[in-house]
Amino acid sequence: MPHGDTGWSPFRVPLVPVPRGPGACSLGPIIVHEDLDRVLFSESEIRAGIDRVAAQVTALYRGSDFTVVSVLKGSCIFCADLIRRIPIPLQLAFVAASSYGHGTTSGRLEVNYLPTGGEIEGRRLLLVDDILDSGQTMHRLKQELLERGARDVHTCVFLDKPARRAIEFEADFCVLHVPDLFVVGYGLDYAGMYRNLPIVGVLKPEIYARGAKAAAPEGTTPSP
Fold first, then answer.
1. What value, to the nearest 5°, has the Cα angle with vertex 24 and ends 194 and 40?
2. Catalytically active residues, by annotation
3. How many domains is the chain built from?
4. What CATH number did the domain enclosing 145 receive?
5. Contact at 8 Å (CB) between 158 and 175?
């Protein structure tokens, strides 16, 4: 349901600077949004983690042809920053898979499209996603790519949320580990919003509770 029909908008106000506490480094204010309960990972923490993973990926693929496969839409920001830190030749492809709607838990997975055969067959692939929670999305996409002729498939995620794992699956590369909280920013969204935040923050429960209530059919009580 479009936001205009629900009577609420996640972006009610612009990003605002929050002064740092006493003794904090003088890097300027932290930029947050009033819909966030708190900042979980700062821009500097994100950059440091991506630098580390980029070095690991470079070491793995140095001297071989490979393709980075970005899972849309969530991983696009992470993937763009990651590949610009990888100083070896690579190709870029995309796959679309959906497992989140307006709620805060994984739903039915839909694979909307995959790279063409020439981008897959016989190639080494690095599958990149924004977050690993249940593990079902990455597991299914990896199997699809292997069945379509990929030479090998390694996986890389921006965030790993092991508390939500539904199957046995671990990513080969992970930037940051996150507790069982609903987080947004840096590509991660709620109802399509907040992807453009430069940090990762915990969304206030009342925000997604309000959205769930607005989207619920008449006569039902939505779960948080």
1. 30
2. 133
3. 1
4. 3.40.50.2020
5. yes
